[in-house]
Amino acid sequence: MVAIVTGASSGLGLSIAELLRSRGTQVVGVSRRATADVAGDASKRETALRAIEAAERLGNIDLLVNCAGVGIFGPVGSYDDDAIAAIIDSNLIATINFCELLFPRFKEHGGTIVNVLSTAALVGKANESVYCAAKWGARGYCEALKAEAKGTKTRIIAVAPGGMNTPFWPELRPGFMDPADVAATIVDAIERPVNISELVINRR
After folding, report:
1. What domains appear along the chain, each with residue ranges and CATH number?
2. Exposed/middle/buried for 180, CB within 10 Å: 0-12, 13-18, 19+?
3. Which CA distances in Å does 117 have to 103, 151, 166, 189?
4. Is the per-residue pLDDT at 151 higher than 70?
5. From CA 181, how far away is CA 201, in angstroms rounded?
6. Cα 140 from Cα 76, distance rounded (Å)
7. Using CA atoms, how far apart are residues 50 and 183, in angstroms rounded to an integer?
8. Residue 105: exposed, middle, or buried by beta-carbon count in 10 A (0-12, 13-18, 19+)?
9. What is the per-residue pLDDT across 103-141, written as a single tens digit (0 to 9) for each?
């Protein structure tokens, strides 16, 4: 199996990429960091094309995990243009960008797309207005993908994790989940033969 994982240099994306590799999947990790397999902005078409080219050198691409994202939080009225663009680009446009390039080929040849959303895609949260907007947009796009995927060889899995202790936050938060545990749940869903289209992951 060959996979592309965005947001693969830290947090949940890194945990997913590492777990997939440990189970024999060849992974092309995408991140803004220079240490990534493909360094660049996941919301840019050029980055996605380079990632696909790198993955194709390993074999047929079977899996896309969209996990890129940033969180900038504050009350309504506190966001400037740059903050709004950063949130929308990383959490929504990046997901659309990679899906637009890989979904058509997955429809024909088979493949799985995992779009990592957030519980912020399910309920509005104070001080997270723009983040919620981006995640609700990504959820809507994912639901449309599911509708188009019916009767094809493509699986679409939408994942809505609750709070995790990742570099998203400046300090550890009691009660938040370990991203490695969340990654294990996601990879398990990918590998199961049954069709799992949606996961909501919270601490017990």
Report:
1. 2-201 (3.40.50.720)
2. middle
3. 18, 24, 15, 15
4. yes
5. 10
6. 22
7. 25
8. middle
9. 999 999 999 999 999 998 999 999 999 999 999 999 999
pTM reported for the whole predicted model: 0.92
Count other Cβ atoms within 10 Å, centred on residue 14: 22
Q: Distance between terminal CA atoms of the chain?
A: 32
Q: Residue 116 pairs with which residues in a beta bridge?
A: 159
* Closest C-alpha to 187, from 56, 27, 9: 27
Whether the Cβ atoms of residue 37 and residue 50 lie closer than 8 Å to each other: no
Residue 11: in which H helix or E strand, if any? helix 11-22
Task: Give me the pLDDT at residue 164, please.
Answer: 63
Residue type, 63: L
Residues 58 and 51: their CA atoms lie apart, in Å, by 11
Beginning with the edge strand found earlier in the chain, give each strand of the sheet holding 198-201 in spatial order: 38-39, 26-31, 2-6, 61-66, 111-116, 154-161, 198-201
What the block records as the tokens of 98 is 């990679």
Residue 187 amino acid letter: V
Which of the 8 DSSP states describes residue 93? I
For the residues of 111-158, what is the DSSP string, one character each?
Answer: EEEEEE--GGGTS--TT-HHHHHHHHHHHHHHHHHHHHHTTSSEEEEE
